[in-house]
Amino acid sequence: MNNKLTKLMENDRFATFVGIDLLEVQPGYAVAKMDITEKHLNGVDIVQGGAIFTLADFAFAAASNAYGQITVAINANISYFKALKGGSLTAEAREVSGSHKIANYRVDVFNEQRDLIAQLTVTGYKKNEKAD
C-alpha cells in the first residue's frame, strides 16, 4: 500500500473507532476485518446493521482508492442475510466494472465460517484528485 493510501485509511477515524483492520489491499480489491464487541450490538443483541455497513464501506474505500485516484461512494445498497451476535466479520471488496469516472463494486461480508452475512453494492465516483 502506498504512503498516501496508508494515510487515507489510517485517517478514517470512524473505522478506527469501530475496530476495523485492513488485511489486504490492491487496486480493485481489499479485505477488511472487524472483531465484534459489545459496542457493535443493537437493542436486540445482534450486530447493528450500521456496523456491518461501515465494515463493507471501508473495504470498498480501500479497494477503490488503491488505484491512486480519490474515489467516493455515490450510491450504495446493502442486503442482510444472517444475523449474528459475536465473533468476527470479514468484508471482501471486488471491482465489478469501471470507467474513467465511475466504478462499481460488490462487497461480500462473511462470518468466521464463511457464511454470507451481507452484500453491499456500491457505485463510486472517481474525483480529479490523486490518492498518491
TrEMBL record:
Q: Enumerate the UniProt keywords alphabetically.
A: Hydrolase
> Short name of one Pfam family for this protein?
4HBT
All copies of domain Thioesterase, residue ranges? 47-117
GO molecular function annotation: acyl-CoA hydrolase activity
What highest taxon heads this organism's lineage?
Bacteria
InterPro entries in the record: Acyl-CoA_thioesterase_PaaI (IPR052723), HotDog_dom_sf (IPR029069), PAAI_dom (IPR003736), Thioestr_dom (IPR006683)
- Give the protein's recorded name: Acyl-CoA thioesterase
Give the organism's phylogenetic lineage: Bacteria, Bacillati, Bacillota, Clostridia, Eubacteriales
